[in-house]
Amino acid sequence: MREPSTDPVSEIRCWPSLVLRAGVCACFAGWAWQHLRWGAPYDVMLWSPGHFGWLARMIGVSWENYVAEVMTDGRILLGVRLLGLFYAALAVLALTAKRNHPLQLICLGIGSFGLAMQAFCKFIKEGEQMVVFVEQGSQILAPWVLILALRRGAGDRRTLGTALLAFWMTFAGHGIFAIGWAPTPGHFYGLTHAIFGFGERAADLFLKGAGALDFLVCAAVLWPRMRQAALAYAVLWGALTGLARPVAGMSLVLPWWGADQFLHEAVYRAPHAALPLFLLLVFRKESFK
Questions:
Q1: Cα–Cα distance for residue pair 101/154, rounded to 1 Å
Q2: DSSP secondary-structure letter at 69?
Q3: CB neighbour list of residue 174: distance below 8 Å, 6 or more residues apart
Q4: CA 217 to CA 73: how far, in whole Å?
Q5: Domain spans, the chain
Q6: Do 153 and 133 meet the contact criterion of CB atoms below 8 Å apart?
């Protein structure tokens, strides 16, 4: 990876940065809809004595009173709605943030922390399997990639390193699940059956093959001759796996065809395709210099 040959200011509107802005915007917009329309599973963490027992002790109440009186459903719902509005504002900010406005970049960083907390809640809900958290790497780190791209340029080593780390986390995490090194989530089989009509055996073989390709792509990115092909595949696969949710779930018999239930699940997974596309565009630009 080369040092950027242009000033960061001149790269703010280049294609890689525009792709990155769009991916981060979509991620925050999708999570805003999730929070405002369907809520979020923060109660998994807030009502866990192992993680928030200290708060009950600090305010001097029993755990039972904390759950029954302090952390009421109404208060959680209000907090979730406010966080949804914050994510909606961040979606706009991702498209408009400027490198010389520290407060805007700090807000994007806070948004990344919020996405990490959501991933942590999912981590707790799924039995504290570390791979659950790892797989969310693209969504968690995408705002930081944008911050670094704005501050240092799209081709800076730290920008590319963070983007590669996020890319590896998501694809390796998906590969671990698909191959079965961690228990394969049931919805992997459900999506495969709903889209392709595969039975259990065929779905299992398909997922294991897809998981092996996930690891192959992660390794191929390190080989300059294979890098662009690997990233192109990753863009396609990241987009298809995100779109699989609305394709499998939406139906003409549902209100709004089920778009309000499933479409945002593809939208907030936009970084899964946007980050490899960002990397592909940067590396192609460098290769033609």
A1: 18
A2: I
A3: 135, 211, 214, 241
A4: 44
A5: 8-287
A6: no
Task: Find where tokens 């780190």 sit.
Answer: 141
* Cα–Cα distance measured from residue 222 to residue 224, given in angstroms and rounded to the nearest whole number: 6
How many alpha carbons lie under 13 Å from residue 79 in its C-beta half-sphere?
Answer: 12
Could you tell me the pTM of the whole model? 0.90
Backbone angles phi, psi at 71, to 5 degrees: -95, 65
Task: Identify the residue whose tokens are 């009421």.
Answer: 72
Q: Are 32 and 91 in contact (CB under 8 A)?
A: yes
Q: Which whole-number Å values give the CA distances from 175 to 110, 200, 221, in the listed order? A: 29, 18, 15
Q: What is the pLDDT along the chain (289 residues), one digit of tens a residue?
A: 444 444 444 455 588 999 999 999 999 999 999 999 998 888 788 778 887 788 788 888 888 888 777 666 677 888 899 999 999 999 999 999 999 999 999 999 999 999 999 999 999 888 889 999 999 999 999 999 999 999 999 999 999 999 999 999 999 999 999 999 999 999 899 999 888 889 989 999 999 999 999 999 999 999 999 999 999 999 999 999 999 999 999 988 888 889 999 999 999 999 999 999 999 999 987 655 5
